[in-house]
Amino acid sequence: MAANDEDEDDDEDTETGWTAEDEEEFRTELDKNGDGVLDKDEIYHWLVPNDYDHIVDESNHLFAEADDDKVSTSF
Ligand SMILES: [Ca+2]
Known about the structure:
Layout: H1 3-8, H2 20-30, H3 40-47, H4 54-66
The structure holds calcium ion (CA).
């Protein structure tokens, strides 16, 4: 292991592998009700953010793949 590999993980908790940034994200973004664990709804919102539309993304992907002359519009 190179010396730089150790330096990159300086702020990582050796037991959990979490950085201070990971913990902050958990407390402020993921654990909505602040009970210290992620319930089913919190996990769902973590995996499927509200601002991400799978249907629009898939439509754009399919048009991009199928449109030979690339003269399509995005939704
Ligand atoms: Ca929670």
